[in-house]
Each structure stands twice: as C-alpha cells, then as structure tokens.
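pasting for the record
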Amino acid sequence: MTHIEMTETSSWKQKLFAGISALTLIGAAACARAADNPGPKADSKKAAAKEAPKDAPKEAAKGGQTVQMKVTDKGFEPATVTVKKGEPVTLVITRTTDATCATDIVIDDYGIKTALPLNKPVTVTFTPKKAGDLAYGCAMGKMIGGVLKVQ
C-alpha cells in the first residue's frame, strides 16, 4: 500500500466517524426535545382529566390521602410512600430542579402521565384499587422513580 492509499483510507474512516458522531448528537438532541415537548395528546379530554392544573394544586378528595412530594437532584422525595387501597390519593408534587429527567410523573397502571413544571406544585389524584407495590417514575422508563405501597 502506498502512502497515498493510506491517506485516502484514513480520510474515509474519519469522514465516516464524523458522520456517525453527528447523527448520534442529532438523535440525542431530538430525544431531549421530545422529553421536553411530548406533543399533542391523542385524546385531549381524557388527558385533561388526568393532567393537573399548572397554577395551583386542587383540594384533596374528601376522605382521601394527600402526599406532599418533591423532585430534587436526588429524585422523587420521598421515593416510597404507603397509601390505603380504595381511598383517593392526592399527590402534590413540586419539581425543584432542572438537573433531572423527571419532568413528568408516570403511573402506568392508572394511565397517568402528568407534566411537572419547575417550581410549580402539581396535583395528581387517583384511587388505588388493589394492594401491592405501584411503581411510578419519570417518562424515560422510570429511570428516576419510586414505589407507592398500597395496603
């Protein structure tokens, strides 16, 4: 192999690597934007019923349980909460940091996905119907999350 052939091969590999790197960065940026802006909901009436108002938390349901939570750089606090089966639960969640992917709370078993704007309390109310551990967390596969222990 001559010196010229080696240079052409190295240049080709560098261009390929640069292209792959650029696509990786574009993909990461698109994922970050998608996490910040999930887009329109398919069923807006259903979503509106599940989403809490952004201005102030609602009153807890009569006879229900209210749990104050925060999202900090450590995650959801407290991460584990015990609640009663069959009684309405109102989670009042305030995200206090931008250094987290927990910009939503997701509770799959109840179809809940609610945005958590920075420094604004958000209310999520539902009634757990069965005993056991109920996982909740961020919209990125619950990388940051916790457990509601339903008794």
